[in-house]
């Protein structure tokens, strides 16, 4: 738009924050005749300097993937759509389950914004992203500064606008793939029912089909660019472990140690993602008293303001999140000068399990072979476990495939049923779950250990480099 060509009130003639701008309306210039009739206007028109463009956050300040990576994904997704007879996709993002409800949408569009994000993806045109509220989109949508995959980002004005956009493109009576959220823990696709019902109401002539499985399958094997982001996340996780050890001092509240771990992530460039399943308590306590020291707890059970004490064990399973990608770590810290002998024995076996999994994470090895090798040291030592296996990692945790339970117990999608003969592929990424205890000693105290591994020829690449000794907390 030139300085002499100001768009009339309510028009869509503005580049939505891209290109020369004078009059700003908050509406995309690409709105078709049906979409332009949506009566809601984001905000009053206002002036911006002609030619003003959104600033771009430098790559060294915010991670991003290349356009080549985007094109690889779009090509693969479109081929799957064609084979499935799907004409377009509606992606419905939510911030459920530590923001993992945005995983598929972020994988496709590069946009990971939390607030009500939706998207349309087409066979032969660029996608449209709908996100956020008007007051957070002035003077432009912040996602234009962070990514260059998707340029058409619009303020979300409700499902009638999505239907109108599809009507303008002749897709309102087509076969439409709906993509929500699912994981190994939530195997069925999850949608907000009100949103799904709204789509059915505004698109009565369309055939809506679940298409989330295609994205799950695409995300199973990571590209080297994706692994690069996870590698950086692993470096951050290693620093978090160091902070965990340094903060484990008598008298320090559990909450302070927890906060130090979270701060270490964010201060080193990880996204704010408070996934830290932590627990602490005394190794020695009355037999009539049970402590939760086999696996960490979620919020609000942890953290508490209980001060750490000499003789405490601290266990944590946490994720770092870098560029949207999750890296898994588990570690055990003992507050004291020396690890108790029986606890040390549990840890030593956990290290054996870790080494076995690293050796077996090679292309062509089956899930069953990996699982048997990983569990063999614990069985030989007569130890029990609450989780002993591995779960795939990426934009979601857990992804497919995942096995952490004994067959016939726990969740059927995570006990190895029906997937034992599946072969590992180069570029799969896994977090170990090695959570052992000795029931002949204490039924409520154990060790947790993990690294995040990439399947490679010759054995796994370790992304975290988790210490091979129990951390010893410092003095008060």
| Pattern of helices and strands | EEHEHHEEHEHEHEHHHEEEHHEEEEEEE
Q: So, CATH architecture of the largest domain? A: Alpha-Beta Complex
With strands numbered from the N-terminus, the spatial order across the biggest sheet is 6-5-4-3-7-8
According to CATH, what is the class of the largest domain? Alpha Beta
CATH homologous superfamily identity of the largest domain: Creatinase/methionine aminopeptidase superfamily
Please characterize this protein's 3D structure.
It is a single chain. The chain has 476 residues and is of the alpha+beta class. The protein has 2 domains: 59-220, Creatine Amidinohydrolase, Chain A, domain 1, CATH 3.40.350.10; 224-473, Creatine Amidinohydrolase (Alpha-Beta Complex). Helices cover 28% and strands 20% of the residues. It has 11 helices and 18 strands. It has helices spanning 67-84, 96-99, 103-109, 143-146, 159-168, 193-202, 212-219, 224-247, 254-267, 341-360, 367-381, and strands spanning 23-24, 46-47, 88-92, 118-122, 128-131, 153-155, 175-179, 207-210, 276-282, 312-322, 325-335, 384-392, 399-403, 429-437, 446-449, 452-454, 461-462, 471-473. The chain has a 6-stranded mixed sheet with strand order 6-5-4-3-7-8, covered by helices on one side. A hairpin with a 5-residue loop joins strand 4 (118-122) and strand 5. Helix 8 packs antiparallel against helix 9 (254-267) and helix 10 runs antiparallel to helix 11. The chain is globular, with a radius of gyration of 25 Å. The N and C termini lie far apart (65 Å). The model is unreliable at 1-21 (pLDDT under 50). This is Aminopeptidase P family protein. Residues 1-22 are annotated as: Disordered. One of its GO terms (molecular function) is aminopeptidase activity.
